[in-house]
Amino acid sequence: MRRDFQEPARCRPDLVFGRDEPLAAARDHLASGGSVLLHGPAGIGKSTVLRSLAAEYATAARTVLRCSATESESHLPFLALADLFGLVLDQVSGRLPAAQRTALESALTGRGESTLQRDGLALRLAVLSALRALAAEGSVLIVADDLQWLDPASAELLGFAARRLGGTPVQLLCAVRTEGPEYDRYLRASPPDTVAVRLGPLSRTQVATLLDHRGHRLSRATVREIHRTSDGNPLFALELGRALAESPTPPRPGEPLPVPTSLRALVLSRLDMLSVEARRTLLVASAGARPTPALLLAAGRDDAEAECAQAAELGLLATDLDGPSGPAIRFAHPLISAALYAEAPPPERRAAHAALSTAASDPIERARHLALATTGTDPEVAGRLAEAAAQARDRGAPAVAAQLGLLAARHSPADTVPGPEERRLQAAEDAITAGEVDLARDIAHEVLTRATVPADRVRAWMIVIDTAGHTMTEVDSVFPQALADAGDDPRLLALVHYQLAWRGLIVEGDFTEARAAAAHAAELAARGGDRRTELLSLAFQAQTETLMGHPNAPATIKRALKEPQDPAVACHHNGAGSARFRWLVMGDRLAEARTTVTALLREVRRRGSVESEVHFLRGLAETELRSGHCGRALDLAREGLRLARDSGIGETASAMLTSLAEASGGDVDRALALAREAVDHAREDGDQMYLSRALGALGYAQLVAGDPAGTVRSLRRVRELEEGLGITDPARGRWHGDLAEALVRIGAPDEAQDVIGVTRKHALRLGRESVLAVLDRAEALVRAAHGDREAAASRLTSAQDRLGKLGYGLEEARAAFALAQLRTRPTDPDAPETARGRAASYDEATRLFRRCRALPWLRRVDEALTAPDPQPPAAPAALDGLDGLEGLAPTERQVAGLVMEGATNREIAARLFISVKTVEATLTRVYRKLGIRSRVDIVRLAAGRRAK
Prior knowledge:
Helix content: 55-70%
Structural class: mainly alpha
Oligomer: single chain
């Protein structure tokens, strides 16, 4: 064994990115005693995964044999065999027949001449016998990397033994480089129980995580380009990230990534076999966005067909005959195209772009190629690029518009109108629309280093603030500078005061201040003739008034919807359409809200506005959730969360909404994790508005998880926050019924009634019918806790009917569930309800939850059905011994009384319709109040009081 393999390289499993599924498949098979063959292309991470699995399973094996071949040593016979058996030869040689021992020692030590032709059978049997001898002492794990470089002799011997190891505790964990289905021949040389596990490319998010872990802090646009160029190959992605980090000058707009020499050598090794003209043809193809044979011919490559065929034979190209626009030319790997372009001298690149600037059929493509073929400033080129950027914007491709805008700025002379700074600012605004906030921020800061025109400077400051999102505390210092640059210009001041309105809401948590600032911004914008800012300010004012329950909200929405409208604002996530949608949702007009938000989502997708798309995906998911379409809501919420995380926009809000959807229709543990993530992010950002929303989601998830005490903690905090924020409309967060229900569960019905009473006043004032119905459902639980079962049942029946008519399917099902729980609680201890009767009582709730696809709530029904038969509450006599104990709440007295009867925590939970966690928490309070330590002390203390 070579020294490199005497101690295995340690690999932390948590550093293996994006391999959960293949790792799980490999682990399951290894745990069952099988063998695993990892395969995939070069750089895909096979060795990393192999080391991780080996580190996990090596400790369980009695013997671990390792080898790792290299291409330079693949001609040396028996080298891999020596790696595997070199250190165990003395251990097994004495148990081998003489002929086998001699053959194996000769092969491993080189002291004698041994070949497969001369000692073939003896060597084959020797390897098999050696493995069986080792396995007789305990399990054996063979770890072999880079099987493709195994010397032929070792590969033949290992394959012979592997095929005959059935029933022997010997497992193989191997990795081999493959580009397609050729792993079959390695599988045939493996034990019969071997499973092949292919490692595929990483997703963009996984590549971003990998680069971030290696310390490469790159913009999302750059990460996206790295992912595209590397095709998700982790080695290629890391090398590209390293090259960018080491490059003194980042690539200009429209230019591909710098490809390090190491990767160029890897992918272009076959390029020398092409003719000079074929290489030029491939360079033109690499410069084109969507190269086709026709495009190459139009670009002057007359022999393109034959040259592309030659490249395809060498594995550089893969002709796609079924492209959307006919036959297309596709490089075998995107990195080949990038490396080919990077390898070409600048004059040859410009010549390729010049040819494509006339050959391309798309005007946007022609303009881009013209820019890349031109050096220095040129007003005509800049103008064509600006026109192309506008076309891209109209097509819903703001990312393309941003790149073209930067090219236009680069070619714009300083004395032109519009000038280079104005074009850069437009590119930054396009980048924000596309979700490229890092790029937009960088452009704005660059402009601020040079711009002297107040309008340009204020516009740049607004971009800086916009890119901060909800982390507005980070840009507090910007506002005084922006106000100074705005001077007394009402148009510029309107922009700043609009952002100050957002700061008042997010940072200060003051709805009154935010509303006043928005109204002032609208007034300034109207005075300055800036209809866009006026509309945004009015929409913001309407949103705050809606959440405050302010009586002016409907009138402000009408003002925001008044003509003339700005089409971009009309569908903006902070525009009047969004304000109207929020009003519809809060006003129980769910069908109309769904139609409105669906139209908004369709339009922003057409425009390519990522932030608005994330926002309206949340809006549509919320509408479906309110309507009881939990499965559909969960799909939309997950889609929105993926987009939010990919773009870095609206992650807190998307995590919060997805938590609500998971708790209603998915996985409760996932809901809890997402809610806590949203709470943490909101706290880190200093975002008071979304902190209350995130805590509301956490409280709901805790309720579904059977933790009413946790719900109370979370939602009491929400109550405090919203009182401080000035939010009075209960339709904003709809947490009030959950808090009241949880309070009843923990034995605080009086506080629950207080929550209900205060909330009902606001709901009646604003006409929030669904909120009133939910409050009635919660109040029924209070009545039941006080023993008024008849009134509770009547109120639940009414609430269920009203919620169903309003279209709140999930809330309707919850009312049916509460009614079933009430009906299965027996009043006559001598006539307990049968299990069949209990199941029938839950039929309606089960049907409604199934209709909603509310899986977590269905599990709650199952728990109720499988819990011990409910027993009547503890007899008053059982509590006599506690009559003199002051300070115990009603639920605490009930729990203590049942403890005296000898009931377990689970039995107490079933009898009192609370969770086991609540029982435990209640007992802890009882112990503290009574100054005791255990259940036994309760019995002793009560017995002593009765004796007196």
